[in-house]
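Researcher: Go.
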Amino acid sequence: QVQLVESGGGLVQAGGSLRLSCVASGRTLSTYTMAWFRQTPEKEREFVALINSNGGVTYYADIVKGRFTISRDNAKNTVWLQMNSLKPEDTAVYYCAANSERTNSGYDYWGQGTQVTVSS
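Model: Structure:
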């Protein structure tokens, strides 16, 4: 089992920055692809970014490309999402998730989410 805990959300003005953290316990993340998703009450959950197990591959949703950066430190069992140039439409609950690269069974592990609110 992998337990994921997100932190770093909050209220920020448009154009500002936040850095989200996702800390894992229970297992090492070194064999997991990690991703960030976000959700609002009005929308279905949407993909934001992912990073593969060794950090060599990253992928971003077009709507955040160039503004958000995903990174990880397997020694710290932590994944980050650096969010710059934030827009009101980035307001959402952000979740981190883990997908085992051994089984590739999907994102089986999720955190509880952290709220990001961007004011205009």
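Model: The chain has a mean pLDDT of 96.
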